[in-house]
Amino acid sequence: NIQSNLSKIFRKLRSKGRLTEDDLNQGFDEIKRVLLEADVNYEVVNKFIEDVRERALGQEILFSLNPGQMVVKIVYEELVDILGKAKKEIFFKGNPAIIMLLGLQGSGKTTTAGKLAVLLKKKNRKCILVPADTRRPGAVEQLKQIAEQANVGFYEPDTDDPLEIARKAPKVAYINSYDTVIIDTQGRLHVDDKLMKELKQMIKIAKPSEKLFVADGMTGQDAVNIADRFNNDLDITGVILTKLDGDARGGAALSIYSVTGKPIKLIGVGEKITDMEQFYPDRIASRILG
Amino acid sequence: LSKSIAKDKIIISELEKVMLEADFGFGITTDIIDMVKNSSDKESAIEEIKSYLISILQSVEFKREFPKGKPYIRMFVGVNGVGKTTSIAKIAKSDKRNGKKVMLAACDTFRAAAIEQLEIWSNRLSVPVVKGSYGSDPASIAYKAAEEAIENMYDELLIDTAGRLHTNRNLMAEMEKIARVLKKIDSDFPQETLIILDASIGQNNIQQAEKFASSIPLSGIVLAKIDGTAKGGSIFPIVRDLKIPVLYMCTGEGLDDIVMFDPVEFVESIFP
Ligand SMILES: Nc1nc2c(ncn2[C@@H]2O[C@H](COP(=O)(O)OP(=O)(O)OP(=O)(O)O)[C@@H](O)[C@H]2O)c(=O)[nH]1
Ligand SMILES: Nc1nc2c(ncn2[C@@H]2O[C@H](COP(=O)(O)OP(=O)(O)OP(=O)(O)O)[C@@H](O)[C@H]2O)c(=O)[nH]1
Ligand SMILES: [Mg+2]
Ligand SMILES: [Mg+2]
Question: Does residue A51 contact residue A249 with C-beta atoms inside 8 Å?
Fold first, then answer.
């Protein structure tokens, strides 16, 4: 567990009894390494260490009897504290409420659409999945099969214009008494101006109460650039981090939250339609700290 | 004469920043800083780093030997969503254009519409695809495809597999079985196994390469999605330590968005 892992860093310092500011800096360098190896973004790491350093010195760590232990505690608490601010529920507004899934290619949007529907069904919501990705080969069929697995509604598109689909689907959903529309969109790069513009237009048309950025939990340093762009262009309302059933440390969680300030609502932990969990800040903090 | 950047904390941290932000990882970044800390200035340090990185990438190669009288089988593996299926379509197109008789095998029998996705590509390219039903054993489809490729004298068989996390022992065993079953037909099969790595993924690429390589021999890496803003630096520790060459780079979603990997160009993109 992380307490013992970080404790290793400070064990050598603990044997010294009292820490000098130099010892403390060495300890923080080690924490920098831990965070970088966890894929937390370089600038985010530097800012985090500065904040923790301030807290540590503020708490007169240097004069405490167990400084190593205290620093470990501060680092963990600070991480849980930051990520804790990132935790929020799915927000519904309108009838039907529109949820839009967006993000990079292959991040897990289409799969997540099914998982989200299954989760919301438990809360008595009547969901319909809308395939607004008409370009990727087999994408509409993929969402259709997922809708069948989830046993929820599926909007059969009669056009291959994503904007037309976004326009028509909510009306069809309303007529058929669905209260929740989940729109799956095509994967796109944050630097693809044309596709980002298309997404902006889709948002204007569909007016979603949730614009969820679905990001691969194994994303590295680029997580800040990607998330920043999606957030600045589209004002996302939340994040879903996927593929956290692997052994990626998930530093992207801290990077994405740090740069967007938007909540991490759910995490994907497998390929099955039931493999979605709540985001627990303390669990992710432990995972990041190794 | 004793001028050295080791004394200049700003230069050292600037060099570190470029490498760390490029997903090199802490380990190799530290090694490289150690290697160049006695450079006289930043420019010469960068020159030394660049030639070092190029030498790492050029130190491993994969000699492709096309056999006479049997198909050349290439298996594509990797974690979920990295670009395996799309990369197969790209390579099928270019190899067909080069006069090869190409066949595909749809060995992802798990994911929703995985077979349909590959079928659409096979139709667009007019190359046949061997498939089976969802839930069937991927190894049996690979076996059937190899037999058919041999019988109908195909030059090349490209095998698409399901995305799988290297931490899932059952799925890794399933992949090992595909390779094992092919070996039963011919000890050379598959002659090439490529792992697709997503350039936007961080240090986990290293674990992926390690674990996949310990399951089945990897001939090379396809570095996909380099058209994003990620630098793909995680390949440096992978090539240096695992000695697996990067063979292709994928630069987009279109059929022509694939290039032979160029070490010099790649290193230049990180230190322009
Ligand atoms: N292990 C694991 N795999 C996942 C998870 N979420 C999605 N996947 C897999 O990731 C791959 C990509 O998922 P998709 O849902 O097709 O991703 P996408 O974002 O819709 O992709 P594009 O539409 O091409 O942008 C598939 O193999 C999914 O089964 C997860 O939480 N864990
Ligand atoms: N921008 C960009 N997108 C890519 C590239 N290669 C693949 N993609 C996209 O990434 C997404 C996933 O590609 P797939 O080929 O389905 O990936 P996969 O590894 O077969 O996925 P699974 O079978 O679900 O594990 C699709 O939207 C592709 O169009 C690339 O080089 N650049
Ligand atoms: Mg999709
Ligand atoms: Mg695939």
Answer: no
| A42/B contact by beta carbon, under 8 A | yes
SS3 A72: helix
Q: What number does the ligand 1 atom closest to the CA of A111 have? A: 15
Tokens 């697996």 found at: B244
Instruction: With H, G, I as helix, E, B as strand and everything else as coil, classify residue B213.
Output: helix
Interchain proximity A189–B228, CB inside 8 Å: yes
Contacts of B225 in chain A (CB under 8 A): 104-106
Buried b or exposed e, range B93-132, using 16+ CB within 10 angstroms: bebbeeebbbbbbbbbbbbbbbbbbbbbbbeebebbbbbb
Q: Rounded distance, CA A216 to CA A223, Å?
A: 9
Q: Say whether pLDDT at B3 is over 90.
A: no
> B111 Cβ partners below 8 Å, 6+ apart?
A142, A271, B162, B163
- Residues in CB range of B8: below 8 A, 6 or more apart: none
B161 in contact with ligand 2, CB cutoff 6 A: no
Cα distance between residue A24 and residue A30, in whole Å: 10
CB burial of A69-94 (b: ≥16 within 10 Å; e: otherwise) equals: bbbbebbbebbbebbeebeeebebee
The verdict on the CB of residue B224 being under 6 Å from ligand 2 is yes
Ligand 1, atom 9: nearest CA belongs to which residue? Answer: B80
SS3 call for A54: helix
How high is the pLDDT of residue A65? 65
Q: How far is B7 from chain A (nearest CA, A)?
A: 18
- The two tokens of residue B142 are 């690979």
User: Would you say B234 and B201 are in contact if contact means Cβ atoms under 8 Å apart?
Assistant: yes
User: Between chains, do B198 and A248 touch, taking CB under 8 Å as contact?
Assistant: no
What's the gap in Å between A271 CA and the centre of ligand 1?
A: 7
pLDDT at A25: 84
- Is B121 close to A137, i.e. CB distance below 8 A? yes
**d(Cα A238, Cα A112) in Å, to the nearest integer?**
14
- Residue A246 DSSP class: S
Nearest CA to ligand 2 atom 22: B81
CA dist A91 and A99 (Å) reads 9
- The per-residue pLDDT for range B154-188, each reduced to its tens digit, is 999 999 999 999 999 999 999 999 999 999 999 99
DSSP H helices, B76-215, are 84-97, 114-125, 138-151, 169-185, 204-215
A residues 3-32 near B, CB within 8 Å? Answer: none
Q: Are the CB atoms for A118 and A270 separated by under 8 Å?
A: no
**pLDDT above 80 for A105:** yes
Top mutation candidate among A111, A135, A142, A183 for ligand 1, by most atoms within 8 Å of CB: A111
Q: Which residues of B touch A190 (CB under 8 A)?
A: 228-229
Q: Which amino acid is at B190?
A: P
- In the structure encoding, which two tokens stand for residue B53, read together? 């990185």
The ligand 1 atom at the shortest distance from the C-alpha of residue B163 is 27
pLDDT at A57: 80
